[in-house]
Amino acid sequence: MRTILVVDDDLHILELVRLHLVAWRYKVLTASSGEAALRLADHSVDLAIVDVMMPGVDGFQLTARLKEEWDMPVLMLTAKGELEDKREGFMSGVDDYVVKPFEPEELLFRVQAILRRYDKPTESKIEVGDLEIDRQTLQVVKGKQKLMLPLKEFELLAILASRPGQVFERRYLMEQVWGLDYENDDTLNTHMKRIRERLSALQASVHIHTARGVGYWLKEEK
């Protein structure tokens, strides 16, 4: 599960962002000041979402520190939407800039896009639960059982298995598997239904869950 650090001195915004990120299956750390954020930065944080206008260490200063000391990706979420503010933000090292008020789904898209850019090279084999997913042979293996999935189904399962517990947005899955000119949502629904049936037939310990209105995620059921 990915860990996101949210930094904002507005406690209402802090809680709002936290709730959305938790709903999208991220682990969330919160801080109401730049100083508090720096104390949390060592906790294996994958991404920071940072406000600008904070007392003490402001968002620009915090971003520079997070970049310099941890090489951490940063999304700036702020009411300061003037071009000069954005310029200063990008000069400090932010990876993306979102102006308040914001649409929660847009925040999700941007968080996922940043995390993808920072992802490590894809491993040829993924182990999740009692399954091994082999990208080279395109096989799903459980013990002595081997299953060959149709290519699109395999690609979808491999994406979900690459980050167990993380919600993958529907549009992202469609673009990754079918390309920019993706088909309608019914195509994705049909493929997910078939993958679920195959995992059930294997009696696999992992199951695909639906985040209603958002996307899908994979979880091991112990």
Automatic annotation (TrEMBL):
SUPFAM superfamilies: CheY-like
Residue intervals passing through the bilayer: none
GO cellular component: cytosol; protein-DNA complex
Keyword Acetylation set for record: no
OmpR/PhoB-type domain residues: 123-220
Gene3D superfamilies found in the cross-reference section: 3.40.50.2300, 6.10.250.690, Winged helix-like DNA-binding domain superfamily/Winged helix DNA-binding domain
An MF annotation (GO) of this entry: transcription cis-regulatory region binding
Entry protein name: Heme response regulator HssR
Native species: Bacillus thermotolerans (Quasibacillus thermotolerans)
